[in-house]
TrEMBL record:
InterPro entries: Solute-binding_3/MltF_N (IPR001638)
Signal keyword on record: yes
Keywords in alphabetical order: Signal
Domain of life of the native organism: Bacteria
Name the UniProt record assigns to this protein: Solute-binding protein family 3/N-terminal domain-containing protein
Residue ranges occupied by any Solute-binding protein family 3/N-terminal domain in the UniProt entry: 54-251
Pfam family, one: SBP_bac_3
UniProt xrefs under SUPFAM superfamilies: Periplasmic binding protein-like II
PANTHER family: AMINO ACID ABC TRANSPORTER SUBSTRATE-BINDING PAAT FAMILY PROTEIN, MEMBRANE-BOUND LYTIC MUREIN TRANSGLYCOSYLASE F
Amino acid sequence: MFIFKIITQQHVIRSIVSGLFVAFCLVRVTVGQETEKVTTIHIVTPEWEEYTQKDGAGVYFDLLRAVYEPVGVTMTFELVPWKRALEMLDRKSADAVPGEYYKEEFRMPRYPIDFDETSVVFKKANIAEWQGIQTLAGKTLAWLRGYDFHVEPEMAGIQYKWLEVDAVEQALKMLEKDRIDGYLDTTDEIETYLEELQFDPTFYHIEPLWTRDLYLLFADTPKSKVLIEIYDQRIPELLASGELQKIFEKWKISFPAFTPREK
């Protein structure tokens, strides 16, 4: 009887140890498999000159390569309109979109990728004196489809008409023909297109409205969790090495603070 008890106890101990070992191996395999699968990050974005160019150059693309390629993650990209990019993210057919304001309902890293200043451009003849954002009351405004400036807190309480357009050129032509009173976009985009379309700057005025940090918006997938962890680990490393600042200096773009948001 005594010998039987010893044998039984030894059998139980061996079973427990074997079970723990198998569980440990399964955990390692699961984590390993998850990590092994993350070898690419697929970015969808509009084409923005100096940021996300069709030739694969630009400050955002350079930054993302610097973040991910040293750890074995290759960046691929697809240039699509903003609204379609968000739809692709919602369908989980892409991994991330750069240049979105922070929103609690989305997966985003703690560190931003950039900041932007949103402005409105209008004809001086139509708005002779700017008296703050309330000056937009009663006006007809336009912005790119999917930008949704009407939900920004600064626009709350202002009564105005708004419409969406598919291209900056379309909006500025409407502004030129007095079909709208103002066009909202980033200051850089407005200045770039006014110059490219050869608008006479003496007839137009650009007024800043607000400044925001911009983030990478990720799809709601297990893969995104790994990609976000890599991003939040690599950005401080690139800041410390000075590589991040060199990327922005190369493109002559203002260097963001890269202040992490609170968890």
